[in-house]
Amino acid sequence: MSGFEVAGIVLGSIPIVVSALQCYMNGLGTLQNFRSYKRILKSLILTLKTEHVNLQNICEKLLTGIAPQTRIEEMIRDPFGDHWKEEEIFDRLRLRLWSSLQVFDDRVQDMREAIEEMMWKLNVGIDGKADWAESSSIRKQFKRATFILQKSNHEEALTRIRDGVSALQRLAVLNTDLESQRKSRSQGRLNKLVNEMLSGIYDALRSTMTCNCSGLHDVGLRLTPPSRTVVPEDDDEDIIKELRFRLAVSYLTGSQVNTSKQWNEILLKSGENSETSTVSFTAQSACPSKKMVGCDEWSLVPLKEVLQDPALLYGDKLRLAWMIACGVLQMQGTPWVADIPRSDDIFIAQKSGVPQFRHVFVLKQFPECPRANTSASPTNPFMLYLGILLTELILGQSIATLDLPQTQTLEPGLPRHILDYEAANKLLGRVMMAGGSGYYNAVERCLRSDMQIGTAGGLAKIGYMIKTYCQTSRLPQRNMPCFVYINGYPGIGKLTIAKELQQLLPDSKVYHNHLLIDPIDALVERSSPGYHEMRTGLRRYVLNEIATSEYTKDETWIFTDAREASAAGEMGAKDYEAAARKRGVSFISIVLECEIEENMRRAINPTRVASIGAKLTDKTILRPILEKEAIYRFGNDNELVLDVTKLSSKEAVLRIKEHVDRLAACP
Q1: Is 0.70 topped by the overall pTM?
Q2: CATH code 3.40.50.300 region(s) in the chain
Q3: Are strands 508-511 and 556-561 parallel, antiparallel or unpaired?
Q4: Of the ranges 44-53, 270-279, 519-528, which is most confident?
Q5: For a surface tag, which of 81, 360, 478, 635 has the fewest beta carbons within 10 Å of its beta carbon?
Q6: What are phi and psi of 293, to 5 degrees?
């Protein structure tokens, strides 16, 4: 059990002791001889409550920036919960506490023992109840009660708790202040070890892959972001033993006339030689008895070729950028990457023609062809071209197609890297618009960097770059809960889009407008007096339940509606916005548009007619609506107006998902 789990146990145990003391106080209320002890109990309760609040604040400070904001309050409320056992949170806490982790563990363990001692003396069970706290029981066990309720009997335990909380408070403040510099050193040390291992792996491949096959073997090294926290107490050999590298190795099969390329995925991990006590790497198939996840269907394509793929969403771009930046920086100075990293050098795995954006590789060929000697350059543009690569990724185009007229007017004969720098510098404004301020800061730092390979402190700077990039641009695991409001004409495809969007948004639910329309239609005709009032009442009741219920607080809700630009339409649409405001989540409006004839074609589709009973399918009613009425718009920055005339539902959903990811990403 980690010290952090113990801290949660202490946090949850203090209220149990307070509850027991309160029971004793209630039992003493009718006993004249024990009234003086009530003051002692009040003092004990106040002291414990104070230390409990202080410990809550300490845990909150330690968790800020480590656990998701939405989870911190939950962890404080439920100190015995499973979140206190999560390895990812502990790993980040380990980095934050640095070399004081053991002191932290010892302190919370001492506090736990002090709490348990108090519980034992008070005869308190784990349920927080004292076995004989009632007045009749206290009277029967007078001597024991007087002993238990003496303040001096608990003074030592209280002192240990107070001292522990005070020490933890100092540890939390000082270590949090130093965390950014330590992250840089931690990543710098890890990168140095990874860099050395990658060079060794390349040399081993070069010396062993000297076969006489008809074609060269492609060997892809998979890029993986840093997965380990390094602190001063960690030994280099122990770190190396935990490193894992994945290779994809190609080979040709078939006859000389009809050949095909197959892939095997190989997992490299360290193996200790018991005789020499040295660490070496051993290889094993990553997919026993089968090729690389159906590798006969796989291929590797350059990143440059998928930059404009509509399936490459904003979230995918951030995740890719994070993996590429971390991986390429770890490889800097090794044969795995060129002195100038480009989008042609990064490869994305494709399965059956579909890009797998989580599978990113650099590619080399063996046996190795002799490399031409290149003259040393007085400057090293590695970081510049990493910044350019990140620019191309977020803008979805290569810099050659993004070259600006201002760059073309520069003095002829300037070095290529100067021209490329000027071109990339002109694009920073677009990077800010497309990627946000964090992404912009990472790209700008790359472009402005004057880092030299081999200079003192170079690895520390690399680590700092990774730290900066991960802090500013790393994609969160999931979005914050939000309300997505899809508004459009009848028949445009709102429900189909909403259901497909639900598959892409974790923890989301669809509440379509016919769930509000059909119950009222089953009761009265639409022309009946009070029909619209009943609709309004039901809508507001449902939205209020969704906005206030504890059971729905972590859900993303996808609503569909057909609100026209009128006073009544505005009122109905704003009911959804008000519900989002009451819940305290983002309200994201999606307005769907479509050409009339295409909208009509979709509206009378037999599949749609059969799906939900009360849908509007009468052409004579629908056409005037499409021709004369306008769909209501909020007109704010969170709104996306999307013409779906020529878009499939899948294409529309991908664009909506990208918009939602941008607006609802976790902080």
Answers
A1: no
A2: 482-664
A3: parallel
A4: 44-53
A5: 635
A6: 45, 55
